[in-house]
Amino acid sequence: NAIRTAHNPAAPALLDLCDEMGFMVIEEAFDEWRDGKTPFGYQLDWDLWWERDLVDMIHRDRNHPCIVLWSVGNEIKEVRQGRPEGLPIMKALREVCHREDPTRLMTCGCCNSRETLKAGYGPLMDVFGYNGGGGGCFDYEKDHAKYPQMPMLATEHPHTLQTRGVYRTRTWYRDLARNPNVERMEIPHLTAAEVFTGFDEHYQSSYGNAVVRMSISDSWRRTKSLPYFCGEFRWTGFDYLGECYGWPAKSWNFGIIDLAGFPKDAYYFYQSQWTTAPMVHVLPHWTWPGMEGKTIPVIAYSNCDRVELFLNDQSLGCRAGDERRWDVPYQPGTLRAVAYRGEKVVATCVHETAGAPAALRLSGEQDGDIAHVTVDVVDAQGRFVPHANPDITVEVTGPARLLGLENGDPLDTTNYKLNHRRAFHGKLLAIVQGRDATITARAAGLPAVSTRLG
Q1: Which segments of the chain have a pLDDT < 50?
Q2: How far apart are CA 92 and CA 124, in angstroms?
Q3: Is residue 385 classed exposed, middle or buried when 0-12, 13-18 and 19+ CB atoms within 10 A define those classes?
Q4: d(CA 160, CA 308)
Q5: Which of 27, 28, 32, 75 is catalytic?
Q6: Residue 134 zone, left/alpha/beta (φ > 0; ψ -120 to 50; rest)
Q7: Which DSSP string corresponds to 158-174?
Q8: pTM reported for the whole predicted model
Q9: What angle, rounded to 10 degrees, do the helices at 12-21 and 46-61 form?
Q10: pLDDT of residue 379
Q11: Looking at domain 359-453, does it have CATH number 2.60.40.10?
């Protein structure tokens, strides 16, 4: 129910939407102070511009009811290194925030909170923000005992990575190769040996076991169990361009929604924790040709009392509580999860083993003159084919134009303006501007399919 802008003031249109939709916002002013992170960064203009820029942001946006906190920085070098020259800067920033808007509190996203608190930055913030780095995400209880009056918030945690449609049963920590002693919350491997092979090493597992420090479930369990802890802002809500891990990647894959706006499995974990409408989601999908007989861990996310899993109409048992896992020898067919509240069935999730790609299916939504059209690859029975990656051409006829195509693949650097792009794990998104037009999708060996924009 909240968004932290990273790491700059938000566009007015975003704040208008947050006002309208009921999101709370932490609006952030700076990514660096006097000590820059890059040679030509904001530090070159800090002394001349910091106060005017902060005042301008507050004056422009203080009438937005969505804003609940002003943030004066993100992982600022002076702060995360516990350097004394940053203390008067933090004090001055807080004074400006209070002077220009006495109705709101301020915070700062702090990496390496241990050094930050030891240096005396804590009392200079109205709310102390933890960014997870340096092990601060493990210190909530200890810090609260030492600073019982200090409001605490996870401004950037947890950091987990996931690629839609990719699964691995062995746990991966981002920083382990760089530092074998990196502080982390251990996530047991799902299996002794890796079950899934063939995925590019740049893609990350959707089981929730590709992390920086801890899993989404462990992080949320800690956050919701501590009554003095305000909440958490995970990194990130959706994938974003840039800050990648090197060519050929264009994104870090941190989001729970991919670049095309398609939800990943992690999205449904949060839905199970943050919503009350009955839901159940099962992972992974159930199309694994050549893996017959191999045992696949199956996980269910649900906000219901218990979940029963069926394979080809045979019950594999019920699971309750937070850990809803079954180890299922793979055989093609129908994997069905049934969620109960009391004795009543209130939600289901079904995965069917798909055959060869046979058709394209179009669906979408239109808001004004912008339409988002999803192209799914399906088999002859209309079942979604999660491994299909055909090159798809999209044509627009009528008073409209194709703005771009996106498939959510963090390794795909195809020009957005071309009218063709391959699907990624069975899906492609077309963004179209205009009305009264026909959208047609084609792929080699598959029949063309069209839909009409109103």
Answers
A1: none
A2: 9
A3: buried
A4: 28
A5: 75
A6: left
A7: -BB---TT---SS-EET
A8: 0.96
A9: 40
A10: 99
A11: yes
Structure-block tokens of residue 406: 């996106």
Q: Is 406 one of the catalytic residues?
A: no
Domain with CATH 2.60.40.10 in the chain: 277-352, 359-453
Cβ 391 vs Cβ 360: under 8 Å: no
pLDDT, tens digit, 9 for 90 and up, residues 95-108? 999 999 999 999 99
Residue 325, token pair as written in the block: 């896992």
Residues 6 or more apart whose Cβ sits within 8 Å of residue 375: 360, 361, 362, 392, 394, 423, 427, 428, 429, 430, 441
Tally of residues, the chain: 454
- CATH classification number, 2-272, choose in 3.30.1390.10, 3.20.20.80, 1.10.1760.20, 3.40.50.2300: 3.20.20.80
C-alpha span between 127 and 133 (Å, rounded)? 17
User: Among 140, 135, 152, 144, which residue's Cα sits nearest to residue 230?
Assistant: 152
- CB neighbour list of residue 63: distance below 8 Å, 6 or more residues apart: none
Domain 277-352: which topology? Answer: Immunoglobulin-like (2.60.40)
Q: For residues 425-450, b (16+ Cβ closer than 10 Å) or e, as one string?
A: bbbbbbbbbbeebebebbbeebeebe
Question: Angle at CA 175, nearest 5°, toward 146 and 247?
Answer: 140
CA–CA dist 155, 338 (Å, integer): 36
Instruction: Give me 285's structure tokens.
Output: 């999908």
Return the closest-CA partner of residue 282 out of 297, 260, 262, 295: 297
* Other C-beta atoms lying within 10 Å of the C-beta of residue 248: 11
3-state helix, strand, coil split of the chain in percent (to 5) is: 20, 35, 45
Q: Write down the pLDDT at residue 396.
A: 98
CA distance 212 to 269: 18
DSSP string of 347-380, one letter each residue: EEEEEE---S--EEEEEEEEETTEEEEEEEEE-T
- In the chain, CATH 3.20.20.80 sits at 2-272
Measure the CA–CA gap between 196 and 288, rounded to whole angstroms: 9
Tell me what pLDDT residue 358 has. 99
pLDDT in tens, 144-165: 999 999 999 999 999 999 999 9
Question: What is the spatial distance between Cα 379 and Cα 285, in angstroms, rounded to a whole number?
Answer: 15
Backbone angles phi, psi at 95, to 5 degrees: -65, -40
**Paired tokens of 384:** 């979604």
> Distance (Å, rounded) from C-alpha 67 to C-alpha 443?
46
